[in-house]
Amino acid sequence: MTPFGQAIRRMRAERGITQRQMAGAIGVSAAYLSALEHGRRGQPSWELLQRIIGFFNIIWDDAEDLQRLAGLSHPRVTIDTAGLSPEATALANRLAAGIADLSADQIEDLQAVLDRDKP
After folding, report:
1. Where in the chain are the domains?
2. Are 93 and 80 within 8 A, CB to CB?
3. CA distances from 43 to 23, 66, 117 (A)
4. What secondary structure letter does DSSP report for 84?
5. Is 112 helix (H, G, I), strand (E, B) or coil?
6. 29-61 pLDDT, tens per residue?
7. Phi-psi region of 76 (alpha: psi -120 to 50; beta: other; left: phi over 0)
8. 75, burial (CB in 10 Å: exposed 0-12, middle 13-18, buried 19+)
């Protein structure tokens, strides 16, 4: 499941909405919505994202948060290390090879390191 899919599923559950109901309202199949929630489909298009935001009638910060989550939710990520240091390439490969074995705490620790120097 992706962060975006998790958010969609949570909002549906809070409102008592089925996948079929939501899918019909935003113009996609229930199978597609399920795949989007479970990370078997890539990021939603801008248009679909706007329909989802409208469906849930969310505004301002909540809409921005959902857009941010959509941007972080591509289930098949490619990291281009061309032109970077050998150490950066090695890190990308180690992360790709070992990400499935990381615990939730380890993932949180890595995210904290990446967030530490953000402006």
Report:
1. 3-71, 86-116
2. no
3. 16, 12, 27
4. S
5. helix
6. 999 999 999 988 888 999 999 999 999 999 889
7. beta
8. middle
Q: Is 109 helix (H, G, I), strand (E, B) or coil?
A: helix
Q: What is the CATH code for 3-71?
A: 1.10.260.40
**pTM for this structure?**
0.71
Instruction: Tell me the C-alpha distance between 83 and 8, whole Å.
Output: 37
Q: 68, 61 in Cβ contact below 8 A?
A: no
Q: Rounded to whole angstroms, how far apart are CA atoms 85 and 101?
A: 25
Amino acid (one-letter) located at 117: D
Two tokens, residue 41: 């489909």
